[in-house]
Write a structure and sequence with these properties.
By secondary structure, the protein is an alpha/beta fold. It contains 6 helices and 7 strands; from the N terminus they run ααβαβαββαβαββ. The structure holds S-adenosylmethionine.
């Protein structure tokens, strides 16, 4: 087990125990919902949600008709999500998984989600996991401003300006944004980079 993984697992298990799995939001991400028209599942279409947390985005895709593999390092949140999936009959398969170590599931997905999580050495694997013609929907913290009162600011966990677009330059970028959200509310303000990109057909 790597140092980052051990730290991530403990940190996130503690957060989910202390604050509850829904404390980071239970509604699907606005960026995902805004691109609903692109999210049309083929019959038996599969999706992947990395660092899925409480599964708010995985559940949204399941309701659209996808079967979703949902991965997260926190056993606490995965156990919670398993109960939710059983209770609500969602086509979501939660799995406790350390993304700094194991490979992604060996299949190609119509949609790959990465929200509020940054692991740069996963970019290539996310692309490989996307089926030709499939979509990556990605949103995470970026450093648009020097100082932000909230959100991570260390380089390991925040994107450089333009970095996400450059990372997916070999995909067709359908939408891209770098934006300061909630600029009027000092408690909520944060800067995010958001992307929807399509893997070229073979
Ligand atoms: C800010 S939350 C985002 C959750 C979800 N994507 C969302 O937007 O609601 C970050 C998630 O990354 C997970 N995580 C952190 N390090 C990880 C790792 N090494 N492998 C897998 N998941 C990890 C945490 O457990 C946590 O659920």
């Amino acid at each position: 087990m790597g140092d980052r993984d051990r730290g991530d697992r403990q940190k996130w298990n503690r957060k989910y125990r202390d604050k509850g799995p829904e404390s980071f939001g239970s509604e699907p991400a606005e960026w995902l919902v805004a691109h609903r028209d692109l999210l049309t599942p083929e019959p038996h279409g599969r999706a992947l949600d990395v660092a899925c947390g409480n599964g708010r985005n995985a559940a949204y895709l399941a309701r659209l008709g996808f079967t979703v593999d949902a991965l997260d390092v926190s056993g606490v949140v995965i156990a919670w999500l398993r109960e939710r999936v059983d209770r609500e009959g969602l086509s979501v398969h939660p799995r406790c998984c350390d993304l700094t170590r194991g490979p992604l599931p060996p299949r190609e997905y119509q949609v790959v989600l990465n929200f509020n999580f940054l692991q740069r050495d996963l970019f290539a694997a996310l692309k490989d996991a996307t089926a030709p013609g499939g979509l990556v929907v990605f949103e995470s913290f970026t450093r648009l401003q020097v100082e932000l009162p909230r959100g991570p600011s260390d380089p390991e966990h925040t994107l450089e300006a333009g970095e996400l677009r450059r990372a997916f330059a070999d995909f067709e970028i359908l939408d891209y944004r770098e934006k300061t959200l909630f600029p009027e509310d000092v408690q909520k303000t944060r800067a995010m980079a958001s992307l929807v990109a399509r893997r070229p057909d073979r």
